[in-house]
C-alpha cells in the first residue's frame, strides 16, 4: 500500500469520524466569533488543522476532539482580531445569583423566546458563553466540556451555573424594559 492509499484511508476515516460534527463545529465558532463569515473562516481553518493532525487522534470522542480544535482556533482568532473581547466585563449585580431558589427571573427564562435567549447569550462573557452553548445547545456532558476547555470539572459546572444565572438576569432585564416601553 503506497502513500496515496494511506492518504485515501486517512481521508475516509476523517470523513467518518470528524465530518459528522461539522455543524457543531460551525455553531461553536459562530457563537464565539459572533459572525457567520468569521465562523466560516475559523471552521475551515479548524477543519484543516484537524485533518493535518488527524494522525494524533486516538479514537476518543471525535466530536470532543474537533470542538477542542475549533475552540482553540476561535480563541486564537479572537486574540488576533478582537483584542477588546479578551477581558470579560464583570458586573457583580448582573453576574451573581445569590438566590438559589426559584425567582420571578427564573420564570422569565423559562418563558423566554428563542430570540431573547439568543440576544442574552450574545451578551455573555466568552468563557460563560462557550460552556452554556456546549452544554445546552450541543448537549456535551460536563466531562466533555472540561476536556474541550481544558478546565477542571468543578470550574465547568460553576461556569454553567453562573452563565444560566446571567441569562436569567439578562432576559428579565430585557422583559422589564419591554414592559416599560409599552406603558
Summarize, please.
The protein has 183 residues and is an all-alpha fold. It has 10 helices and no strands.
Write the layout of secondary structure elements.
Blueprint lengths: L2 H15 L4 H12 L2 H17 L9 H20 L10 H4 L8 H8 L2 H9 L3 H12 L4 H8 L3 H30 L1
Helix pairs in contact: 2-3, 2-4, 3-4, 4-9, 6-10, 7-10, 8-10, 9-10
Structure, described:
The chain folds into two domains: about 80 residues, Rna Polymerase Sigma Factor, Chain: A (Orthogonal Bundle); about 90 residues, Winged helix-like DNA-binding domain superfamily/Winged helix DNA-binding domain (Arc Repressor Mutant, subunit A). The chain has about 180 residues and is mostly helical. Helices cover about 75% and strands about 0% of the residues. It is elongated. Helix 8 packs across helix 10. The N and C termini lie far apart (about 75 Å).
User: What name does CATH use for the topology of the largest domain?
Assistant: Arc Repressor Mutant, subunit A
In the CATH scheme, the class of the largest domain would be Mainly Alpha
The parts where pLDDT drops under 50 for at least 5 residues are 85-103
Number of helices: 10
Main sheet summary: none
Radius of gyration: 19 Å
| Overall mean pLDDT | 81
CATH-derived architecture of the largest domain: Orthogonal Bundle
Number of strands: 0
The helicity comes to: over 70%
Amino acid at each position: 500500500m503506497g502513500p496515496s492509499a494511506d492518504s485515501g484511508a486517512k481521508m475516509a476515516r476523517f470523513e467518518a469520524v470528524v465530518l459528522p460534527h461539522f455543524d457543531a463545529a460551525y455553531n461553536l465558532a459562530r457563537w464565539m466569533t459572533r459572525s457567520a463569515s468569521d465562523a466560516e473562516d475559523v471552521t475551515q481553518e479548524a477543519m484543516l488543522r484537524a485533518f493535518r493532525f488527524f494522525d494524533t487522534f486516538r479514537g476518543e470522542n471525535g466530536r470532543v476532539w474537533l470542538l477542542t480544535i475549533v475552540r482553540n482556533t476561535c480563541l486564537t482568532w479572537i486574540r488576533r482580531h478582537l483584542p477588546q473581547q479578551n477581558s470579560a466585563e464583570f458586573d457583580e449585580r448582573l453576574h451573581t445569583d445569590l438566590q438559589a431558589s426559584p425567582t420571578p427571573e427564573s420564570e422569565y427564562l423559562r418563558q423566554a423566546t428563542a430570540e431573547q435567549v439568543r440576544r442574552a447569550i450574545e451578551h455573555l462573557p466568552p468563557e460563560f458563553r462557550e460552556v452554556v452553548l456546549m452544554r445546552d445547545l450541543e448537549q456535551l456532558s460536563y466531562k466533555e466540556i472540561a476536556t474541550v476547555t481544558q478546565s477542571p470539572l468543578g470550574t465547568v459546572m460553576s461556569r454553567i451555573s453562573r452563565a444560566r444565572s446571567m441569562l436569567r438576569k439578562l432576559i428579565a432585564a430585557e422583559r422589564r424594559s419591554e414592559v416599560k416601553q409599552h406603558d
